[in-house]
Amino acid sequence: MKNRLIIALALLLLFSTYKLKKIPSLSKFSIKEIELENNHILKDREIKKNLTFIYGSNLFFLSTSQIKKTLKEISFIESFELKKSYPDKIKIKIFEKKPIAILQDKKNKFYISQNFDLINYKELEKYEILPIVFGNEKNFQVFYNELKKINFPINTIKKYYFFESKRWDLETHSKILIKLPSQNYNKGLKNFMELSKDYNFDKYKVFDYRINNQLILK
Predict the structure, then answer these.
(1) Which of 5, 49, 69, 188 could be bridged to 209 by S-S, CB 3.0 to 4.6 A?
(2) Tell me: the pLDDT tens digits for 190-215?
(3) Which of 78, 96, 114 is the last residue of a domain?
(4) pLDDT, tens only, 107-137
């Protein structure tokens, strides 16, 4: 409110100083255009339909708080930058979240972002090959970070299965099933990576590590 008052006083001073010139009407600064950039997944119309309240607002006195609140409701948006372009346009640069997996939660689907936020699901060709997670995002976050710590080849995983017994199964794109125990599963994962270098590796489709200090191959 204080900033708006300062701007209003400055305008009043400016317009009263140059009496011989025509005083521009504040209506000249009424917003008529919203320009979007850097949005690759979200269509312009998807974003603009949520920002219709901006049109007709005065560019000088535009509050960004409502814009921020509205854009945060669009789950694909990570952040944004806003610039005023006088006399009647605003420019918004969109930064979208990057999905790393698809969460299948009963009948509901979501994308899981690289920051482990849930993104409302919609069919996108770009993300058709993402792995599917059967479980919840919190358990997946812990497990995924453990995989990264040991440099497990995450890009080979097609499906993640989380069970009520607090353990995971992994299915690879080559149809190999890795059955892990509920505890100390890193030992089995490291063993699997080591065995994958062996020439006999392709003979087996199931690597079962559920029994402590044992590996069952099928």
Answers:
(1) 188
(2) 999 999 998 788 899 999 999 999 99
(3) 96
(4) 899 999 999 999 999 999 999 999 999 999 9
Domain that holds residue 44: 24-96
Q: Are 122 and 179 within one domain?
A: yes
Could you give the C-alpha distances from 133 to 52, 139, 161, 197, in angstroms and in order? 36, 10, 6, 26
Q: What CA–CA distance (Å, rounded) separates 214 from 136?
A: 28
* Residues 90 and 196 placed together within one structural domain of the fold: no
31, 56 Cβ separation under 8 angstroms: yes
Q: Give the residue carrying structure tokens 């209506």.
A: 27
Domain-embedded: residue 13 = no
Distances (CA, A) of 38 to 42, 81, 134, 201, 206: 10, 10, 32, 44, 44
Q: pTM of this prediction?
A: 0.82
